[in-house]
Write a structure and sequence with these properties.
- The protein has three domains: 157 residues, 3-Layer(aba) Sandwich (Rossmann fold), CATH 3.40.50.150; 188 residues, FAD/NAD(P)-binding domain; 143 residues, D-Amino Acid Oxidase, subunit A, domain 2 (D-Amino Acid Oxidase, Chain A, domain 2, 2-Layer Sandwich).
- The chain is 28% helix and 26% strand.
- The strands form five sheets. It has an eight-stranded mixed β-sheet with strand order 3-4-2-1-5-6-8-7. An eight-stranded mixed β-sheet has the order 14-15-13-23-24-25-22-26, sandwiched between helices. Strands 17-10-9-21-28-27 form a six-stranded mixed β-sheet.
- Helix 7 packs parallel to helix 13 and helix 8 packs across helix 13.
- It starts with a helix and ends in a 10-residue tail after the last helix.
- GO terms for molecular function: oxidoreductase activity, acting on the CH-NH group of donors; tRNA (5-methylaminomethyl-2-thiouridylate)(34)-methyltransferase activity.
- Its EC number is 2.1.1.61.
- Pfam families: DAO.
Length: 573
């Protein structure tokens, strides 16, 4: 088809297709590249019949090109998947034979398509092969017509002409921002904004990046599994897959990023836990088995052959997982920002003020450091001391990692974990940990060290492993919310919220955004969290299902406080 007429005059052309066809997708991208009057952005959203359900944003090397893959849950109606999509669609391309498309379109689906349709959006029917085009059945055609799609003669194309007013698109943002905090969350925010042409000032109290919670020698990256495929599992799956692809674009593990994609073996705790995991492996997700390169259950002989030591109850192998030094990830992200990033490091404690549409960051003496219309808080537990975010229920959780001389441990071929983790040696040191406690003391603790050693010995099934290991390691403080999910989005104005009951109605501080609460999963969550926030600010299609977006909204705590029988309490909000 001739796409040029559909995308002319648009800054972003967003296409939805029910079939991820590489040849047709390639033809569309080639047409976009070849058109001198093309829109700056081409965004393709494709429904796929995948083993892993959920939305997946696939980072592309080419600026202006975005690809989202929507893995529908087995048996889920087309309309159910569309209902979780937050986008404005310019072109619906429905592909397949008559029976395929007719079966997809019912009243719920047509309603969902109308909700997503941009003004004058096109709908094109394409055949299962390039030489044919289906004709809609009467019921499907009537459902689409009832929701505003007007068909041309021949019934192969339609244009959306719904009478219901379209919600206004957000105004183009002023593409200038301050990011507060140069850990993994802040570094990812800088990279995702600079990639969209923003000018960003990064403000950090320390002399360099990744000197607080992101300063450990090694963090592990792996997906999360659960029997009910719950929200943390779905979020972590989407973020993990995004991160793997995104890191490749930054230069890759073992190159631009220090670490190893050596795999992770997560051991079962005992025979009962192994039985539960075995059932999970048999059922997979949504009734489909996990792809082996994503997650594979290993029984005892396989696990022990791989590990080279005891694994009496088996475990999960995550082949594409491994470990990375978070500071090197921050370095790679910031390097990718180029000249659009201004770094203000070593500024010490700061305060922020909002005046006349601008956020101002001031040092401890009240001297201005930076100003911009947008401020992104990625300062972890430091956000608890700021007036705008103090009402949010964030806490600082201490984590101590022990550094074990490699010669005191058997050589590991991969990361080993259960209640704790142990990494292969890097520069002669293995990392073991990490503790979780509310102790505010930043000094290495002998008790925490002994706790790490005890868990390490349990992992290795060796009561004498690392015996006599010196007290060496690092203490960091994770920023954690009560539900253990991150806070991504606009910061709520809790004092002005009144009795509102819906997220979209919660008042927000103008131009103020949060990337907080990453707990111990910042290495995985940071990239997709920053991508989600940047897409929200820019008014782009979102890379996650709306249910997950809502679950991450910082304003969720305002609503929970409203619903509490005690009424709103500062500790709840």
């Amino acid at each position: 088809m001739d796409y040029r007429a559909a995308w002319r005059g648009r800054a972003r052309h967003t296409v939805f297709t029910n079939r991820h066809d590489e040849a047709r997708l390639g033809a569309m991208i080639d047409a976009w590249r070849a058109d001198p009057e093309r829109p700056p952005h081409l965004h393709v959203i494709a429904l796929i019949d995948a083993a892993l359900p959920g939305f997946r944003r696939v980072p592309q090397a080419e600026p202006g090109l975005t690809l989202d893959l929507l893995g529908a849950a087995p048996g889920a109606p087309f309309g159910v998947t569309l209902a979780q999509l937050a986008a404005r669609i310019d072109l619906f391309r429905l592909d397949g034979g008559d029976a395929v498309i007719d079966a997809m379109i019912d009243d719920d689906t047509a309603r969902a398509m109308a909700r997503l349709a941009a003004r004058d959006a096109c709908l094109v029917l394409e055949g299962a092969d390039a030489m044919s085009a289906p004709a809609l059945g009467a019921a499907a055609a009537a459902a689409l017509a009832a929701h505003g799609f007007v068909f041309e003669e021949g019934g192969k194309r339609a244009r959306f002409a719904g009478r219901k007013p379209r919600p206004p698109l957000p105004p183009d943002p002023q593409r200038q921002a301050i990011v507060l905090g140069a850990g993994i969350a802040g570094s990812a925010a800088c990279e995702r904004l600079c990639a969209r042409g923003w000018q960003v000032t990064l403000v950090e109290r320390h002399a360099g990046p990744a000197l607080e919670a992101s300063g450990n020698r090694a963090g592990i990256f792996m997906p999360l599994l659960s029997r009910d495929d719950n929200i943390p599992t779905r979020l972590t799956r989407a973020a993990y897959l995004f991160t793997l692809r995104h890191w490749e674009r930054l230069g890759g593990i073992g190159h631009a990023i220090e670490g190893q994609a050596c795999g992770v073996l997560q051991l079962a705790r005992d025979a009962g836990h192994a039985a539960v995991q075995r059932a999970l492996a048999a059922g997979g997700v949504g009734g489909r088995p996990y792809p082996p390169d994503f997650a594979e259950w290993l029984e005892r002989p396989q696990a022990e052959a791989l590990l080279g030591s005891s694994a009496p109850d088996g475990g999960w192998l995550f082949r594409r997982g491994g470990w990375a030094r978070p500071g090197s990830v921050c370095d790679a992200l910031l390097a990718a920002c180029g000249e659009r990033l201004e770094r203000r490091f070593g500024v010490g404690s700061v305060t922020v003020e909002h005046d006349d549409g601008q956020w101002h960051v001031l040092d401890a003496h009240g001297i201005p450091i930076a100003h911009a219309p947008n401020l992104i808080l990625a300062n972890g537990a430091g956000a608890a001391g700021m007036a705008e975010t103090a009402p949010l229920p964030l806490s600082a959780m201490r984590g101590q990692v022990s550094h074990i001389p490699a010669q005191m441990l058997p050589r590991l071929p991969l990361v080993l974990c259960r209640e704790a983790y142990l990494t292969p040696a890097a520069h002669g040191i293995c990392s073991a940990g990490a503790t979780y406690d509310l102790d505010p003391d930043p000094v290495l603790s002998l008790a925490s060290h002994r706790e790490n050693l005890a868990r390490l010995r349990g992992l290795l099934a060796d009561p004498h492993a690392a015996e006599g290991a010196p007290l060496q390691g690092r203490v960091g403080f994770r920023c954690i919310a009560p539900d253990r999910l991150p806070l991504v989005g606009r910061v709520p104005d809790a004092a002005a919220a009144g009795g509102t009951e819906r997220l979209r109605d919660v008042p927000r501080h103008p131009g103020l955004y949060a990337l907080l609460g990453y707990a111990s999963r910042g290495l995985i969550w940071a990239g997709l969290g920053a991508e989600l926030l940047a897409a929200q600010i820019e008014g782009e299609p979102l890379p996650l299902e709306t249910a997950l977006v809502d679950a991450l909204d910082p304003a969720r705590f305002v609503l929970r406080a409203r619903r509490s029988p005690r009424g709103p309490q500062a500790a709840d909000i």
